[in-house]
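During the reporting period the student researcher (J.K.) took over the structure-prediction task from the postdoctoral fellow and processed the backlog of single-chain submissions. One of the processed entries is reproduced below for the supervisory committee.
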Amino acid sequence: MKSRPMNAKEWGMLLVLSLLWGSSFYFAEVALADFPPFTLAFLRVLLAAAVLVLATLAMGHTFPTSVTAWRRYALLGLLSNAMPFCLIYWGQTAITGGLASILTATTPFFTIILAHVLTNDEKFSIRKTFGVLTGIAGVAVIMGQDAFNGDEAFLPKLAVLGGAVCYAAAGVYGKRFMGEPLVVVSACQLVASALMLLPLMLAFEAGALNRTPSAQGAAAVAAVALLSTALAFLFYFRILRSAGATNVVLVTLLVPVSAIVLGVVLLSEPLLARHLLGLAIIATGLGVIDGRIFRPFAVRAKRTG
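J.K. obtained the following structure tokens:
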């Protein structure tokens, strides 16, 4: 689909999606007080899978029965849910949700790098190369000069970046599913993710299920599963089909805003100036890659030419 300006309805859906995904970092911050990372990841995908399985059946779709099909969904689920959720949630045990959201905003840069390596039709261009280098500079600013010199949060930050790499790999691999009903793809990969996370949770965090969580923690788990996962998937695919991939990627810039505001206002999370500077540099890099940053100049040159 060729990129075009979005209408008011599409912008509204994009803002809702950014709030749903941005709030996931806030909900996780609250839930992690009661649930360890693997358990939270498992509960998130389990509840979201249940909702989307029911949605799939209600829409009259059927589920695949072949082992080959489920292997594909398992790989997609591993990359898009199981691995990134575990990495990001472990990272959030040491860093704020706002900072985690900023680091996750690097996903498009890793997507470009992986697409260049793994595909034949999405190679580097001068614009993409410059955008990726700009994004790397933004990450360096966020990590800080103490990143390699005794920074206790270095590994948690690296884990969140690892989650962004997983999201990028999922985006590249997920293109293989574009011809299939997207609600079926979403439900199947979430089911596969839950089956993968269950033994991991039981092996390392089995005792967590014996503790009674607080009402706030339980509500946060329900919210991150139902709102930030199941409902967010439906919004994402609706925007993707309506406005195209180039426009939906703008949500990457909006998610940290929601996460930062919720964290600062509701949790009194600290936010350093270098984090905001790094986010601004990352946003510039994304603007370069997307080409939007140059469009006003192109239009002006066309008018005066």
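The committee noted the following: The chain has a mean pLDDT of 84.
J.K. will present the remaining backlog at the next meeting.
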